[in-house]
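debug: dumping io for the single-chain case to check the tokenizer round-trip. Nothing else runs in this session.
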Amino acid sequence: MITVQDLAALRDVIGKARAESTIALVPTMGALHEGHLSLARQARRECGFVVVSIFVNPLQFAPHEDFSRYPRRPEEDAAALEAEEVDVLWAPRPETFYPSDFSTAVEVGGVSEGGEGAVRPTHFRGVATVVAKLFLQVQPDVAVFGRKDLQQLAVIRRMVRDLDFPVRIAVGETVRDADGLALSSRNAYLSPDERRRATALPRVLFAARDLARGRLPLPPGEGRGEGVLDPAELARRTREELERSGLAVDYVEVVDVETMKPPPSIRSGTALAAAVRVGKTRLIDNVLLMPIGETR
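debug: decoded output
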């Protein structure tokens, strides 16, 4: 693996690789965990040449958020990527990635407006801008993102569609610890007691998923199951259970994974998404209520 910090050098490396291989990109902000590494492995299955970027993007943090204390572990991250046989670590310098007079932003409407977008109004503008720059720098054939950041995934897909980026978006499933908590770099902020309390988030989401899957309407002509929950009712019950578990809830939403809008009913591609606070740490998670492509 080689580490590249200069854009001209990156383009030289990518240009040579493209003659023989397709290119995959895994964008990250570092502090790598097994979730990130699983995306790198998926990228290797997708393409012959893998680039992982590490850049803590200031544009997606509001002034009161944790940009300055976001975990940074460059040596450990490089060693982990080396072990995964990643080809290139793209670690651009902040001062060259965003020059002092940088004044361009990418704004993706619609899919960015609820959920995280409502709580963090400038967040997805920063995400779309950094990802657009990474796509132009690396020019990947495939980019791999995790389903844990569900709304981010929808924003990137819409940006790719609307701006005709020649890149296919591949999705990696959420990786969880043994206690069910979705892997996140921010989990390092949790004290042991907070970690224990945080496990209520996946537990409640999975219970809600099981409830929804067991009470979906039956096909026409076969009657209807008793106690069918509509999306708003399922979200309400989930919020109440999270609050009973001692978590401060930012939002709970049932959404279509493509549009991030509330669906009229629980159907293929419907997810239950939530954001909570445990102490000073903010966590997000989601579960698919019905697998994409499945019907009942």
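debug: round-trip ok. The CA atoms of residues 62 and 122 lie 7 Å apart.
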